[in-house]
Amino acid sequence: MTTFVLATHNEGKKRELLTILGPVLGADTQVLTAAEAGLGDVAETGVTFTENALIKARAAAAATGHTAIADDSGISVDVLGGAPGIFSARWSGRHGDDRANLELLLAQLGDIAAEHRGAQFRCAAAAVTADGREFTAEGVMPGRLATEPKGENGFGYDPIFVPEGSELSAAEMTPEEKNSRSHRRFAFDALAAILADESNL
Question: Where, by residue number, does substrate bind (predicted)?
Fold first, then answer.
């Protein structure tokens, strides 16, 4: 049996990634989250999403001796020069405080007209094998930022992010609607295609 480690403590993310990666992993595969593998958090010291994804995947592969898969993602706002970027989860100074992060971003864009509120969700996905091979892929979901939060689904900046071609915020969409066009979906679809051509994972 092959074992993969998903370098995340998020069960929702595990389910999402298994849906995408399932065809590549095959039936005779065990998938563990970071918690199930006994892994703690890793300091994300990179300056790009790809660097942070690789840091997490390398640490998990080294600690477990199994191929590890990780991602790093966030929101990049055009008028802020790409910020919050890799600091998305701690934009307000409090890591993981979704409401505070969202409210600060809205305040920073308070006087910005609708036509200048372009933004993108970005995701970098990485896989590192036990023997040190590294693979990366990126995904982007373009859109714009609303002036107030709407919707109860999703997390993070979803209530103020309106994907391109939609009038709904990401938090107003069903999980299936959001995932079909999400940055994470694009990144992991691309990573899955790369891994499908590899052997001895």
Answer: 8-13, 73, 155-158, 178, 183-184
**Is residue 52 one of the residues assigned to a domain?**
yes
Is residue 98 in some structural domain? yes
- State the pLDDT at residue 19: 76
- DSSP string across 14-50: HHHHHHHHHHHH-SSEEEEETTTTT--------SSHH
Q: Tell me: the pLDDT tens digits for 150-159?
A: 999 888 999 9
Q: How far apart are CA 164 and CA 144, in angstroms?
A: 7
**pLDDT single digits (tens) 59-85:** 999 999 999 999 999 999 999 999 999
Tell me whether residue 73 is annotated as binding: yes
User: For residue 1, what pLDDT is reported?
Assistant: 67
Q: What is the CATH number of the domain that holds 27?
A: 3.90.950.10
| pTM for the whole structure | 0.90
Does 72 participate in catalysis according to the annotation? yes
Does a structural domain hold residue 201?
A: no
Q: Identify the DSSP state of 153.
A: S
> Which residue is catalytic, options 41, 72, 131, 189?
72
Total domains in the chain come to 1
Q: Is 82 left (phi over 0), alpha (psi -120 to 50) or beta?
A: left
